[in-house]
Every structure is written in structure tokens, then in C-alpha cells.
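I would love for you to help me understand the pair of lines that follows before we discuss the fold together.
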Amino acid sequence: MDSQKNNHRYHRITLHDLLMNNYFQVGDHLYHYLRKDKTMYSARILSDGKLELSNGTVIKSLTKAANIISGCSNNGWRWWNYKDSKGNLIPVDNKRKEFAARKMPARALEVG
């Protein structure tokens, strides 16, 4: 039961949580290279943790933004990426896992 509670807390972590804990900064961009149309999409992180797409649309969640762009169902945490210091695209979910490891017991990461 304990691991279910931790798993629930892990999935309740928001982009805003990561922003407030300095994993991202206001104005940082997230990216996704969509192979089917060979296009790099980006979204800018706003101060409230929402995303602003390149067309100016503001979206509340990573998943909803990914679904709108791709036209199909996606896990936004795995779909969106940030660029590391070498320019490699890294899934945003990696930052969520790092945050969770700091804020929750290690066992929380074993589930899911």
C-alpha cells in the first residue's frame, strides 16, 4: 500500500513543481522532434507552469500539449524534452524522477 501512495505522489508532481524547485526556469523551452513530419516543435515554460506553444496557444499540461501537436495520445512527460548542456534532448520525465528521488523515499521510484 505504501508504494501505491508514493506512486500516486510521483504522478502528482507537476511542471510547476519542477519550476518552483529550480529544475527549470521561466522562459526555458521544451522540445520534441516529430519524425513523421521532420519538424522540431518547441514550447516555452511560463511562470505558472503552463506551456506556450510557438503559435501562442497556452496549454495547461505537458500531455495535452503533446496530444494537440501530435494528433494522438502521448505521455507528455516522456514526449517533451529539454536540452542538456551538450544540446542532447532529454525527456522531461528525467527531471521529475530526479525531483521525486529528492522529495520521496527511493521505493517510490520502483513503481510505474
The longest strand covers residues 39-45. The beta strands are 29-34, 39-45, 51-53, 58-59, 81-83, 89-91. The mean pLDDT is 87.
